[in-house]
Design a protein that fits this description.
The protein is α/β, with parallel strands linked by helices and about 230 residues long. The protein is about 40% helix and about 25% strand. The chain folds into 2 domains: about 120 residues, 3-Layer(aba) Sandwich (Rossmann fold); about 100 residues, Arc Repressor Mutant, subunit A. The protein has a 5-stranded parallel β-sheet, sandwiched between helices.
């Protein structure tokens, strides 16, 4: 899962990103509306954690940007402004949840996972694609019932591909999903090819089919192959 934290409290940002990163969630940060707009128009996110009181305006204005996006992220409002009017307005604009400050990070994680299950996985902790079974809670993948020994990045890559099945995903999108802001410091996307190669090999060795199609010059597409 890849999220954008729109928040100007540096201490809270550090606490959120450290905790969620430890749980395997890619976290990017925007400290104001300007930074948030730039990131959301450039990259895709599964969820946005949105503070309402930002240095350059009301956080709710970010919904004007979300309406322009091809793929809209889920939104959890995290704010000390816990009046009923703020909550109703945020939910009316399209927010999926509202978590007033202060909150426990474990509760934030639980809500993120619940929203991800509802929006991406039809409420399930498991993803099945033909002979491939992915168990999100314990980070396990099996093919024909045989467990695969995947690295964390390979697991995240497979989940990303399956949840975007039948859709062409570019190398840049894969890199951003797996590494977030760190992608800007990488010289090329050779590591994406290597992870794809390793994932293909492990699935094949377990008796699984190769559902990945290389779209040369662009990226990859996961889905049923055309005979």
């Amino acid at each position: 899962m890849k999220i954008l934290v729109i928040e100007d409290n540096r201490e809270l940002i550090q606490n959120i990103t450290q905790y969620l990163s430890h749980e395997g969630i890619i976290c990017e940060v925007a400290c104001n509306l300007y930074e948030a707009q730039d990131k959301m128009l450039s990259f895709e996110y599964d969820c946005v954690l949105l503070d309402l009181m930002l240095p350059d305006g009301n956080g709710l204005s970010i919904f004007n940007i979300i309406k322009e996006l091809e793929v809209s992220p889920n939104v959890i409002i995290i704010s000390a402004k816990n009046s009923l009017d703020d909550k109703i307005r945020g939910l009316d604009l399209g927010a999926d949840d509202y978590l007033p400050k202060p909150f426990h990070l474990a509760e934030l994680l639980a809500r993120l996972r619940a929203i991800y299950r509802r929006s991406k996985l039809s409420g399930s902790d498991e993803i099945r694609f033909n002979e491939i079974m992915i168990q999100l809670q314990n980070l396990q993948v099996s093919v024909h019932g045989k467990s695969l020994d995947l690295t964390k990045k390979e697991f995240d890559l497979l989940v990303f591909l399956v949840t975007n099945k039948n859709r062409v995903v570019g190398k840049n999108a894969i890199a951003q999903h797996l590494w977030g802001d760190y992608t800007d410091n990488l010289p090329n996307f050779d590591f994406v090819y290597q992870h794809i190669k390793n994932l293909r090999k492990k699935i094949s060795e377990a008796g699984g089919q190769d559902y990945l199609t290389t779209i040369y010059g662009i990226g990859y597409k996961f889905g049923e192959t055309q005979s």
